[in-house]
Sequence to fold (413 residues):
Amino acid sequence: MRTLLTLTMAALCSAGALAQQAPPTSQSTGSATTPFLARRGLVRCGTPNMIPGSWNFNPPSDCTYNSTNPTAAYDPTEIWEITVVFHILRDSNGSGNVTDARCNSQIDILNEDFQAMAGTPGSPGYDTMVQFKLATVDPSGNATNGINRHTNSTWHNDGGNYYNSLAWDPHHYLNIYCNEASGALGYVPWLPQSGTPGSNSDRVVALYSAVGRNAPIGAPYNQGRTVTHEVGHFLGLHHTFNGGCGGGNCYTSGDRICDTNPESGPHFGCGNSTSCGGSDPVSNYMDYTDDQCMNEFTHEQTRRIRCTLQYYRPNLAQPVGGGGLGTSYCQSNLNGFGGSMGVLCLGAPMIRFSGNVLNTGNNGTVAFSPDLTNLPQNTVFFPGDTWNFQLWYRDHVLNPTSNTTDGISITFQ
Fold:
């Protein structure tokens, strides 16, 4: 159980209205489909194709829909953890279930793939230092296993705007819906740079029979890589074959990534192939390769993922063991002084959120919202200035007799 301290800074921006594209029901995104998919009337991925020249949000300019700036500032230095909730949408005839074991194995697969864990199929990739866990607390503070089941034939067939009824706050949870996925193995309605992240419709949808390890859909799409692929979209990545061979600057054409070779079209099956004058990135999670042949995100894809989390999904991931989304995070430490105020875990100068020790609730968390327009510090600041904030609290669940300290350090850019 971790005690979380959340500091929220809001920035105002304006953008033109965007029309959400519905998931395709009969469209194939490649020049061909495998016999496996064709026999079942499925497409590999239903995420809408990129429309050239569309959606270029500013700020930031480092990971927009149309371009990537792969600056080293987005190299991961700490683990960011995303909380996941599965919504299993079953048919009235009882079909469409996904077991708890398969949901848990899907979380394992996501961690193996996004963290390039040694000894797993994802080990050849680059470690994004993004971690996933099933929710243990729902939006109302109640205990949960992070897996919800609903019986509704319309929802099972991916209709009826089920997400308006079922979504857990998409700013803080990754909602994965398991149903018929509109005839695809999976899809997201849009990349966060081109849609409305945090809205109820912000989600990952996966064909229920392709979720988890050794999923009942059978080979070659039964090792959970459909969800890995779709979560890649959810975190801002295009298909490797986006725009075909592209041309010009590889950060503003193709998949907007330079360390994934350009590819004329999706690759099905396994084995090497070439196009656009070089080898195709057939082992990349953002291609259409068979599950067993996918094994990597690249370094620059990692930087785009981290940039997307920082700017387009700033409240989705929480730091684990240090660091954070533009902050450095101080782990909880008992101060050992009984009723005293606590010990510093950050350097001076220090701002106290509260002059009193605050008490946690039954779920072991404490909430405190500082007034960022009236801080007890000079409000004039410059790029590179660092502000340190500290909170002292008493955890009535873990240790009701000692105070604990937590804090964040914010450096302005």
